[in-house]
Write a structure and sequence with these properties.
alpha/beta, Rossmann fold, Glutathione S-transferase Yfyf (Class Pi), Chain A, domain 2, 6-stranded antiparallel beta sheet, 6-stranded mixed beta sheet, 15 strands
């Protein structure tokens, strides 16, 4: 899969922008603040309908305007035109000029894996960050998963609101049972998707970890209240915990507490691995995602490496670039080309941003 062209209107610092990309490697170079990350953010937003940098779409609109627009041509089996417009807090998406009524039906058409500086903190970050990553990647593989997550969150919100209301009153058991049954129904489906995803990642993770320079076993453990339990067992747990849930005004059991944990040689990486081993583990995880997309979707996703090289040494960069399949369209943002070997640069199209202007050419 590849994006062949991108058009922007009033997006971040760009009033108008029209770019054509190379099918292989695209390197966007510029000083900090010039807008290089804004370009790959636009690609990501076109694919997932949301930014990886903010949850507030209004901040993506260039000052003095009331909307932003992103358009792109995506080449897969066929070439299709995609468009996303945000105006007056309403997001509209179209494929080949046909409006898609639900965002969940749009997602999974454009496949993207992004790897940024913040991802290097994945192991040390909060469980909610790792759950967000799971949701992002699995929804691209199968957008039905995203619908299950949305249904689950809607029921969870209803249940929590109800628990707060009845803090000093008797619970309506019939009503809470209906909510619990729905939570369990959608939670089991989400659990199955997540388990399958982690299992497939684990199939290739250690091998990749060794290829990028760490000769140790790397694995991920999926931690969930739902693991190994059926609906009858889960229903009993919800019933047993209803008093605690009522006192706290929130649901203490469920897939909304899920997490996944990195292990290196059977030791939890968060506590026992060095900084370098942790970074390499996250890199291996991201590279494993590429193989998983290829296996499940039949093609590689678009790969984005956002300012990653500022945090990694030259040897690590070389190992990453050597691993990336030539068939993977890759976008790299950087402030310095010196960290990238000339043999790689010669396979790349260079976009240089300076003072709001973009110069594009192949490396000579």
């Amino acid at each position: 899969m590849e994006i062949t062209s991108l058009k922007l209107l009033n997006f971040r610092n760009f009033s108008k922008l029209d770019l054509n990309f190379y099918e292989k490697k695209n390197i966007i170079i510029g000083n900090n603040g010039e807008g290089k990350t804004n370009i790959i953010e636009a690609i990501f937003t076109l694919a997932l309908t949301k930014s990886f940098r903010t949850n507030d779409d209004s901040t993506l609109i260039k000052d003095g305007n009331n909307l932003y627009k992103i358009e792109g041509k995506i080449k897969s089996t066929f070439i299709n035109d995609y468009k996303l417009v945000y105006q007056d807090n309403i997001k509209t998406v179209k494929i080949n000029n046909n409006k898609i009524s639900k965002l969940s039906d749009y997602i999974s058409n454009i496949l993207v894996v992004i790897f940024s500086i913040n991802d290097l903190k994945l192991i040390k970050d909060t469980p909610s960050t790792r759950r967000k990553l799971l949701n992002l990647e699995i929804s691209q593989i199968n957008n039905i998963y995203l619908k299950y997550v949305n249904y689950y969150n809607k029921i969870l919100k209803q249940r929590n609101n109800y628990l707060k209301k009845v803090f000093n009153r008797e619970i309506n058991k019939e009503y809470i049972n209906i909510l619990d049954d729905k939570l369990i129904e959608y939670g089991i489906k989400i659990n199955e998707f997540r388990n399958n995803f982690i299992n497939k990642i684990n199939e290739v993770l250690s091998e990749i970890y060794k290829k990028i320079g760490i000769d140790k076993k790397l694995s991920i453990f999926y931690k969930s209240d739902y693991n190994g339990l059926d609906s009858v067992q889960l229903k009993k747990i919800y019933n047993d915990n209803i008093g605690k849930d009522k006192n706290l005004g929130s649901t203490q059991i469920g897939v909304h507490h899920d997490d996944f944990i990195f292990y290196i040689d059977d030791y939890e990486a968060k506590f026992y691995a060095s900084e370098g081993q942790q970074k390499s583990a996250v890199i291996a995880f991201k590279l494993a995602e590429l193989e998983l997309f290829k296996q499940t979707k039949g093609e590689y996703p678009i790969l984005i490496l956002d300012d990653l090289f500022s945090e990694l040494d030259t040897k690590k960069i070389e190992k990453i670039l050597n691993y990336i399949n030539i068939d993977i369209q890759t976008f790299i943002t950087t402030t310095d080309l010196k960290k990238i070997k000339k043999i790689f640069l010669k396979e790349s199209k260079i976009f240089e941003i300076k003072d709001g202007q973009i110069k594009e050419d192949f490396y000579e």
